[in-house]
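Quick start: read one record
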Amino acid sequence: MRLATSAKISPGADMVSKISTLHNIDTYLGHPICVALSLWCALIRFLRGLIGKSPQSKPEPQRILVIKFFGLGSIAYSTLIVQDLRRQYGDVHIALLTFSQNRRFVEHLSQFDEIITVADSNPGRFVFDTLRTMWANFSHPYDIAIDLEYFSKYTTIHAVMTRAPKRIGFYQTSLWRHYTYTHHCHFNTAKHIRRIYGMISELAGVEKSTATPSPIPISDEIIQHVQGILKSEGWDESAIVGVNVNASDLALGRRWPAQRFASLIEQIIAKKNCWIILTGSPDEKEYTDQCLNLVAESHRAKIRNLAGKLDIIEFMALLKILDLFVTNDSGPMIFASLLKTPCISLWGPGDPKMYAGSSSTQSTVYSDYPCSPCMYIPATYAGYFCNHQFPCMSAISLEDVAKATMARLEKI
């Protein structure tokens, strides 16, 4: 059965509900707490100024906390900060505070000395882990706290509770953020995220950032394991094109219309006879299945939907195997960039100048609307100007994406 339009495809109610709940907690509970903490920090700063006493920062920090909850791609990029800090300070202890669901990926990166997690699976555990973590950090303070979340009041509270004399966060004019951090980094949307994170390194005392994240390690063993999975699905070792029709629930509007993805897949199979592997998380399987149903029956013999069948490490091994990856602006796009996988990336609410990979391996198709980008901007959010209709994504033509895709496939 073919669905008439992409508008009938479910956006994933559970994912949207979860993000909405976290956002409401952050807004309505976090805001008054952050205002109170900001006033407290301002008072402490004022009193220290009166007596001429400054907070004592160690010339060589021994304990540094990095805070990053959302976005595995951004966590991967944060390894450039870790590398900068180790180059500057040597054997410094660097911990990451993140959600428990990110633990396996962070462990695989092998960059952090300690991983502190907060479970977001249920409210009770979330509250328990939050209080436990804040008390542990308050009791055993850090020398530097680095908050890599931009809009989050929750992470601001964590940063203050570390009692670190140097607390680094992104600049905003809001009262709740102004005094809670001692050092502010400007989230300059004209710069790539590598340079923005590099500026954070420099605020932490690094002389000059390399702005280069560490490579994601993928062993031959895991690649062979994933090749075995593909062969069990019928793969005959011919060329493979991966297709990510999803975008994270942080901004579902980044998704290109599903019907056009289906038409692109049909063109790839008709012209190049490649295998098509659809990717996604377990939560994204239903949406990916619905997109697959839009592809004509006659083209489905070489299409496999592996959404929800690979864990994060297996997925990255798959990226190493792919001949080409076609994806919306999302975390998987960042992984492809870091793994140097040939890639076609599609952009509307976001700006490729901030997150896209090197032009040598990645071709970008950008619908540069007058209101784009609306993501990453302090005064706006994804869909702010268009009432969440995202005409910028609908404006990306099948012809443009097919042209970029075929140009990359000619190099195989």
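The chain has a mean pLDDT of 88.
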